[in-house]
Amino acid sequence: MVTSTPEAGTAQAQSAMPGLALVVAGIGIIIGTVGSELTEWLAIGLLVGVLGIAYGVPGVHRYQAPADGALGKWSAMLASVGASVLALLGIVFLAWEALGDPPEEGPAWADVAWPVGFFALVIGVILFAIGVIRAKVLPRLSGVLMLLGLVSAVAIDMATGAFFEDDGSTTEWGFFIGLPVFAIGLAWAGYAVWKGSDFRSQGTQATAASA
After folding, report:
1. Is 0.85 topped by the overall pTM?
2. The domain containing residue 111 runs over which residues?
3. Which run of H or of E encompasses 101?
4. pLDDT per residue over 110-153, tens digit each?
């Protein structure tokens, strides 16, 4: 029997909002990925996604620490910083679009910030997914989906050349297939945190019952 303590209850309450943020992020990414083909304004779902990751991943790391080890600490930092940079860029360009006077080419600082933010986010989320799998606090399959979805999204589009194009002449199959898979895993992990799930406790109970 697992006894709930006031400290555990407080930790769970503090992690509920970051968990919910990842649920919203996952939904936003799916909407942004699929909806961007219908109208470019639905791509704002991707902005919602990176904002949710920036806020949610550090909170989820705290929820499963120290079981996720050093990977969890570094993943939280990298994913949050990378997502924050991309969110800032997204907000700036949305503002330009809203004002009706977007620049033909992005400013030099944006050309530097974009790859820094992107690769920090990708590396951070990959480490985060591995941490989820290793920690066994959240559903391990959620980490597997995040890992496979994100890696396949980047790898496929790099292999086809779509990742390096600006004109969109090559279909971004990795974007359309891998990102939704990643988003499902992200939302699943967030939901587990939001509901206060801890699969370590369940595993301990199952072992004790079988003994």
Report:
1. no
2. 15-202
3. none
4. 888 999 999 999 999 999 999 999 999 999 999 999 999 999 99
> 193: closest CA among 6, 58, 1, 3?
58
End-to-end CA gap in the chain = 14
DSSP 162: G
Exposed / middle / buried, residue 66 (Cβ in 10 Å: 0-12, 13-18, 19+): exposed
Residue 184 lies in a domain: yes
In this structure, how many other beta carbons lie within 10 angstroms of the beta carbon of residue 34?
Answer: 14
How many other C-beta atoms can be found within 10 angstroms of the C-beta atom of residue 9? 11
pLDDT in tens, 11-62: 566 778 999 999 999 999 999 998 877 777 788 999 999 999 999 999 999 9
DSSP 8-state symbol, 2: P
Q: Are 75 and 125 in contact (CB under 8 A)?
A: yes
Number of domains observed in the structure of the chain: 1
Residue 127 lies in a domain: yes
Q: What does the buried/exposed string (b/e) look like for 81-117 if buried means 16 or more CB atoms within 10 Å of the residue's CB? A: bbbbbbbbbbeeeeeeeeeeeeeeebeeeeeebeeeb
